[in-house]
Amino acid sequence: MTWNSFTAWVETHRRHILDLIRIYLGVGLIIKGIFYLMNSTLIAPSVTPNWLTSIAPIVPYIHIVGGALLAVGLLTRLAAIVQMPIIFAALSFIHLPYMGQSMAAREDVEFSALVLFLLAVIALAGPGPFSLAERFGYKMDFAPKQFRTWSNAHPDLYLDAIRMYLGIGLFIKGLYIMNNQQEFGRLLENNNMPIGILSVAHYVIPAHLAGGAMLLLGFITRGAAMAQLPLLIGALFYVYMPRFASLELRQNIEFTALVLFLLSVLTVVGAGRYSVDHAVQRNYRLNHPEPTPLLS
Questions:
Q1: Rounded-to-integer distance, Cα 107 and Cα 240, Å
Q2: Contact of 281 with 140, CB cutoff 8 Å
Q3: Which residues are within 8 A (CB) of 69 and not within 5 positions of it... i.e. 6 or more apart?
Q4: For range 48-70, the mean pLDDT
Q5: Closest CA to 128 of 287, 276, 20
Q6: pLDDT score recorded for residue 51
């Protein structure tokens, strides 16, 4: 497959790629719900408001049922919207109060915020080609037909929104690590990391700062996303996975895996129309039109 044929394939399959994010998030919510069923005391600490503690017992079931609907693409927008108040409550009352205590606590906030953002994107984008709703002709979708038509024609805008969000998040993460290098160093200790991975870890700050800015602007998007992958793979397999049994690091594993998945998606799909890459390509095509084939 040539590069031109690959980019042409991407242009016609953006909705499919966006749908993979819906499926990933749905499966993740199912697993989260099952985990909470097995560890009900972790849903809402005792310091949370009474109203939040009172709804805690039904949270696992909302995650499982809503996650299943998201995964199969049935009542997709409704399933995403129902999850959002729960994630927002967890973000506001469980994670934010402890954000300044450690890098792990900060990543709990970042994870909840990213999931909340992705749910909002899915609530707008709706189901895609891999969904049951697509096969049913949107008969079970409450969104207006005109909006659904527009949304299906602009999947690159949703992917661009995810790209920009990740770019901002990586840039802020780079700033945080730069200002808390001792804490970051302690996180890398006693992990038996290979020398190659450990040496790469020292380039996290410039990689996150430069790569985050490039993703935000959509400049050399695939290269910027690809450059983050070794760092996240190293963090996932050599920092967090060895401590998998530690409950306080569970969300850090989930967060790192989610960001790794999203960056892998961006490595494939690249940038949409709101990017420097698109502007450069459009300008090139205007100044270098393809020659008209001669009639035989």
A1: 12
A2: no
A3: 26, 75, 76, 78, 79
A4: 84
A5: 20
A6: 64
